[in-house]
Amino acid sequence: MTVHNHPEGQIGGRAGALPKLLIVEDDEGLARQLRWAYNAYEVIVAGDRQSAIDALRAEEPAVVTLDLGLPPDPDGTSEGFATLDAILALKPDTKVIVASGHGARESALRAIASGAYDFYRKPVEIDELGLIVGRAFALHALEAENARLAAAGGETTVLGGLVTAAPEMLKVARTIERVASADVSVMLLGASGTGKELLARGVHEKSRRAKGAFVAINCAAIPETLLESELFGHEKGAFTGAVRTTEGKIELAQGGTLFLDEIGDVPLPLQVKLLRFLQERVIERIGGRKPIAVDTRIVCATHQDVDAMVADGRFREDLYYRLAEIVIRIPTLAERTGDAALLARHFLTKMAPQLNPQVRGLAPDALAAIGDWRWLGNVRELENRMKRAVIMAEGKLVTATDLDLEGKGEGELLNLRTAREIADKRAIRAAIARSEGNISAAARLLGISRPTLYDLLKSYGMQGD
After folding, report:
1. Of all helices (H) and strands (E), which one includes residue 252?
2. Short-list 194, 170, 267, 288, CA closest to 224
3. How far is Cα 131 from Cα 321, in angstroms, rounded to an integer?
């Protein structure tokens, strides 16, 4: 279907001044109705996945409403979910509102877990959907402002302690805020050092169980012979050395949340016992005969490929589906736009007063190196490198030499405009660094006028760089 610009997109201002709303809907009658209803926005309409992606690249809308029943699968949801994944892969800060009449609850859970902003069940009520769209635009504007402030040296915290301004991580935070109150089991998938325990605490703190205990256990750090006792507890005399009755972590989290880190390391025999608890919500301590009812929510995490473990029999499929009612994938630090520099400033501010009080900031070459590094160890690696750099720094600014970093290449880009912005920013930073902050000298190096450089700094939000 051809992409159409809303004919009333110029009402209330010049063309392009209105917020852009992309409607992905193959029902032409409903699409026309929605296009005329939302005259407060510049509306773009697409009827299939390719048209939607083309419109996303060309127009970069802040909000998308997406019908899951798209051709060639109008009676199912596979094409709709593929479109959702493609939109969020290209532009993670997009607020996607998903609509479907097929298996509403299952589709809603899957959509939110995949990164959708909200879900709406068909048939469409224009006024109600309009409220959701309005909230989505407001949230997008707020997040964009947070990102701008962070790029200028500010700092944004979400979920009570997670430092981020990246759209990719803010999407994860919004997902957690939405699923936290549902009291379903949550599985966090992400590489080591991405902050899985911090996010698990976020699930707990945003839930109705926030006043209960948050108990964490790393299943990989405890010997297999002791893990069962750690989880389920034991009765006095159950084994040699059991001099008293001890409650396990599941009991200690009664009324709260139990975080099972590295769940993939739980041995198969213990997986059976854990599955029984999840099914019946009762446990038996080692050496005990009395079932004990426990009301504990499970949040788990792993860096392993659980699907592969299920396929080759190392992880029980029935346990996986009990634990993974909601699956949240955590981006690596390299995938979190702008967060490496933001976190580096955060760690420097926190560490310098104790480790090296003369250090006041990051040199331009250090910021460039941080932005280019792959961060295979994620936030943990960045924190360790910043600690070393602060200690080693001989002047007021941490340099690339202090960090001992090398560069890397770029990933996939949204469009030519994005590629140019990245190149412009890199060139501007290099010129300003070479001219030691002198804007006139930097403009001469770049071959542009001083007012033009100021305009570029303003448009790219680089005044605080």
Report:
1. helix 249-252
2. 267
3. 34
Q: What digits encode the pLDDT tens for the residues 355-381? A: 999 998 888 778 878 887 888 899 999
Cα(99)–Cα(69) distance, integer angstroms: 9
- Kindly report which listed range (5-9, 291-295, 359-363) carries the lowest average pLDDT score: 5-9
Which of 312, 329, 346 represents a domain boundary (last residue)? Answer: 329
Phi, psi values for residue 64, rounded to 5°: -130, 135
Contacts of 204 (CB under 8 A, 6+ apart): 180, 210, 212, 214, 256, 257, 259, 297, 299
Angle at 299 between CA 296 and CA 303, to 5 degrees: 155
Domain that holds residue 95: 4-148
The reply to whether 287 and 403 lie within a common domain is no
pLDDT tens per residue across span 51-79: 999 999 999 999 999 999 898 877 778 89
Over residues 418-424, the mean pLDDT reads 79
159 found inside a domain: no
Long-range contacts of 305-308 (CB under 8 A, 24+ apart): 306/187, 306/189, 306/263, 306/264
- Same-domain pairing of 111 and 186: no
Q: Are 266 and 383 members of one domain?
A: no
Number of domains in the chain: 3
Are 346 and 299 contained in the same domain?
no
Q: Is residue 308 part of a domain?
A: yes
